[in-house]
Amino acid sequence: TSTQTFVIAAVQQARVLHDLLLEHSIEALANPGGEVWRNVVDATVLLAGISGGIGGAQCRTVVAHAVHNGLTQLPQSHGILHGEKVAFGILVQLRLEEMIQGSALAKASRQRLLSFYDAIGLPKSLVDLGLGEVSVEDLKIAATFACKPGSDIHHLPFKVNPEQVVEAMISTVATTSIG
Predict the structure, then answer these.
(1) In Å, what is the CA distance from 163 to each residue of 36, 131, 139, 140?
(2) Engineered SS bond to 146: which of 66, 71, 98, 170, CB 3.0-4.6 Å?
(3) CA 157 to CA 65: how far, in whole Å?
């Protein structure tokens, strides 16, 4: 079996999870512990584990956890929940895909996630994270850490540098595709 087959299978599982989360998260959050909530939690644990497990490094968090790890270098971020930083990191990845590759699909996905994040209360920007007053110099520290050798960010299908990561972090709610 080729690595590509595993990646395709992992991506399909991730798509199933993506669709399930978009369809059922609002209802699940309205009734914590209820049947829909349990189904969403079970599917998240199972399908995220399968996607990352069979897809390997190519199908893991890439930018989301790299941004999380970079932000942890800033004392101002220490009170922010892990999942909030990772959710923000997903927007950063989509923004990088827009800025560097000119991806219209990434822009559409980011716009859809911005609406979804609004509906479920996830942060969409540095301001939403409580980091609106962080200096560009501090963001460069976070971005440099996110881009260090061995970081998941290097699993992207294109090269990225700390300056681009800072630009993406600053512009997660932008309405245009160009930085």
Answers:
(1) 41, 18, 9, 7
(2) 66
(3) 16
Single pTM value for the model = 0.89
Q: With beta carbons less than 8 A apart as the criterion, state whether 158 and 80 touch.
A: no
3-state secondary structure 124-136: CCCCCCCCCCCCH
Burial zone of 166 (CB within 10 Å; 0-12 exposed, 13-18 middle, 19+ buried): buried
User: Would you state the structure tokens that stand for residue 89, as one six-digit string?
Assistant: 């990191």
Q: Are 122 and 84 in contact (CB under 8 A)?
A: yes
7 burial type by CB count under 10 A (0-12 exposed, 13-18 middle, 19+ buried): middle
Tokens 């893991």 correspond to 60
Tens-digit pLDDT string for the chain (179 aa)? 577 888 888 888 888 999 999 999 999 999 999 999 999 999 999 988 888 788 777 766 689 999 999 999 999 999 999 999 999 999 999 999 999 999 999 999 999 999 999 999 999 999 999 999 999 999 999 999 999 999 999 988 899 999 999 999 999 998 765 54
